[in-house]
Amino acid sequence: MGVAFEILLGTLISTLLGYIVYILKTQSKGRADHNRGTMLLLKVQLIAYHEKWIERGFVTRHGLTNFTEMYDAYRSLGGNGMIEQLFEEIKTQPIKGEKYGK
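Predicted structure:
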C-alpha cells in the first residue's frame, strides 16, 4: 500500500471518529434536555397534588402511591429537596379510601 493510501485512510478514520463523537454529544444533550423537562413536569404535578390534598385534609392510598412513584422519578432525575418537604407533609395526611367519606 502506498503512503497516499495510508494518509487517506488515517484521515477517513479521524473524520469518522470525530463524527461519532459529535453524534454522541448531541444525543447526550438531547437526553439531558428531555430529562430536565420531565423533571419540571413532575415538579408541577407534585406541587398541585400537595396543594389539593392539604386543602382537602386527606389523601387516598392510590394517590399516595402515585405521589411516591412520581417523587422517586423526580429525585432520580436530579430534583432538589423542595419537593421532599411537600412529600413529608403528604405522608402526615390521613389516608382514606378511594371514595370520599370512607
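Summary: The CA atoms of residues 8 and 14 lie 10 Å apart.
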